[in-house]
Amino acid sequence: MIMEPIKPFSSVAVPLPIENIDTDQIIPARYLKVTDKSSLAEGLFSDWREDPNFVLNDERYKGAQILVAGHNFGCGSSREHAPWALKAYGFRAIISTYFADIFRNNALKNGLLPIVVDAETHQKILDMIAEVPQTTIHVDLEAQTITLPDGQSVTFPIDAFSKTCLLEGIDELGYLFTQMPAIEAYESAHPPRVSIGGA
Amino acid sequence: MAKTLFEKVWDAHVVASPPNSPSILYIDLHLIHEVTSPQAFTVLRERGLKVRRPQQTIATMDHSTPTTPRGLDGIIPVVDAMARAQLDQLVKNCQEHNIRVFELGTEHQGIVHVIGPELGLTQPGMTIVCGDSHTSTHGAFGALAFGIGTSEVAHVLATQTLLQYKPKTFEIRVDGQLADGVVAKDIILAIIANIGVGGGTGYVLEYTGSAIRSLNMEARMTICNMSIEAGARAGMIAPDDTTFEYIIGRQYAPKGKAWEEALAYWRTLPTDEGATYDRQFTLNADELVPMITYGTNPGMGMPITGQVPDPAKVGDASEKAGLEKALQYMGLQPNQPLLGHPVDVVFIGSCTNSRITDLRLAADMLKGHRVAENVRVLVVPGSQQVKKQAEAEGLDKIFKEAGAEWREAGCSMCIAMNGDQLQPGQYAVSTSNRNFEGRQGRGGRTFLASPLTAAATAIHGVITDPRTMIRAKQPIEVN
Ligand code: SF4
């Protein structure tokens, strides 16, 4: 998928400060029987959304594009349906103290920014939201910063390769094809370790 | 320079490492299933691409397939229209790209992580990926095996490579000897309870030590399977004679001269003397007891004789909130023991514990007993081959005579996509790998445990320490 480059944006941030939010909560398995991606928004956190007090049911957070989650967001399954559902719902960035490996990979491939902040900043953001529920955060990928309403700017890490891909909308599959000579050279030097035979 | 097992396998598969970019890693074997592949094939179709190495790709049906008995025509009926469409799509995609697919109910169909090893496809030193996080299972053979997302499935289909940053290494050493009634599942649940569900994030785990070496291959697979539940990229165990004896003669294993060559290479893979890891953790197998989880992630585990932890005693605010939420969902009180807690369902299956040795453990426990009234017990073999073997040994009879359901192969109640699911509020002891909220059915509450604990619990209808059931006269057969 060729992605739209990520430009700076500002949005209200939704607080979901629960640690170890797993992919089964983000998108329960019963929504995985689709062969496309379009219908996944309704499945996002669908079990939790049954509770009228769940934060996504709060009118004030309609249209929010940033989610502030607890530690270790996205653990569990490899289902890319998780970032697909978050994107389909309208999220463009998730802030946490760290992300599960596969989720982070999947998110980056779909233009969903996993923003890692230290525990202190994380707590500060949550405290700000507790005080002012519609706290707005500014995200600038180019500068690798988020800016809080008090003007504090916090840098976040992202690897150079992913950053370039996201800023320029480069797609990784296309990039891999530019490496084809090396792939072919590897294959001629290494016979396949298994050969299964076709359909 | 002295290298670890992981470093040897990684280095042998780096196609290129451009500066400031992830490495391009060659993939030897790509496993696919119906749930995470359709959108990847769509990418290929949209771009007019072909599958680069269909002969290194294999497909099975497992996640959403029914495990209900066959009709008189010998066919397993799929009543869910969406599941049917997904299965049909897989067949179509595989036919179009010349990929072998093991269709529902056929000889070699089963859970993707059960059939790979069973067919001899999983071999030491390989890189193996699948759009499924429990691909870590295959690391039991000394392969580097990990789960990928659907975009990456498309990358591997089209290029047989992946963009990857090199993970760090983490040695988990388990020395000593397991007591009767304590099995591989208890080892891995204890490890995750110690290091936490995020403890392995960014690492590839290597399990070492005398207790690991003494395990058979299926028990090793149980351990590596749950590496992802500690957040690890992969889990690995160095190949040894136990590994080679398991592989020899299997359908896709190397034969003749190729076997000799492969074996010579495989023997070079174990971690060199003097190689170092980025992190280490040690566990003493002598002290282990059967484990059970009480909460809603696999790190919330404890000795079966223990008491549910008290959030009031947890210092960290977010950990405390997590525990409170988990106990509320589970309907449990702080400090309560779990022994004697009633359950509604016992599930024996999943890529963690559905192989023949797992079923033998459960059958040995259930033999001559009836399962408790009001407890539904499902036994779901991991593959058609496991099912056949179990039936040849008469295990199916033991299960049925005990009052358990003997089902067709698949993921079943591990993920509850196929109709096998808990009802809201129900309690289950499950041999699967995830106790997340709603994982086994909306509102369902899962206690993860070993096949022995599951079987002992089935008999009494309440959580039971399997050690109390082990008849002194008969040691358990674990081979
Ligand atoms: S048995 Fe469960 S964990 Fe294993 S592949 Fe199937 S759904 Fe995933």
Your description of this structure?
The complex is a heterodimer of chains A (199) and B (479). Chain A is 32% helix and 16% strand. Chain A is of the alpha/beta class. Chain A has one domain: Aconitase, domain 4, CATH 3.20.19. In chain A, strands 4-3-2-1-5-6-7 form a seven-stranded mixed beta sheet. In chain A, a hairpin with a 5-residue loop joins strand 6 and strand 7. The model of chain A has no long low-confidence stretch (mean pLDDT 94). Chain B is an alpha/beta fold and 479 residues long. Chain B has 15 helices and 19 strands. Chain B has helices spanning 5-11, 38-47, 81-97, 112-118, 150-159, 184-195, 210-213, 217-225, 241-247, 256-266, 317-330, 356-366, 384-392, 395-402, 451-460; strands at residues 14-16, 23-26, 29-33, 57-60, 100-102, 127-130, 144-147, 161-164, 168-175, 203-208, 234-236, 279-284, 291-293, 301-303, 345-348, 376-379, 405-406, 427-430, 445-448. In chain B, the strands form five sheets. A five-stranded parallel beta sheet of chain B has the order 5-4-3-6-7. In chain B, strands 17-16-15-18-19 form a five-stranded parallel beta sheet, with helices on one face. In chain B, strand 13 and strand 14 form a beta hairpin. The longest helix of chain B is centred in the N-terminal third of the chain and has 17 residues, at 81-97. Chain B is globular, with a radius of gyration of 22 Å. The model of chain B has no long low-confidence stretch (mean pLDDT 96). At the A-B interface, helix 4, helix 7 and helix 8 of A face helix 2, helix 3, helix 5 and helix 11 of B. Iron/sulfur cluster is lined by residues 62-63, 111, 113, 132, 134, 350-351, 411, 414-415, 432-433 of chain B.
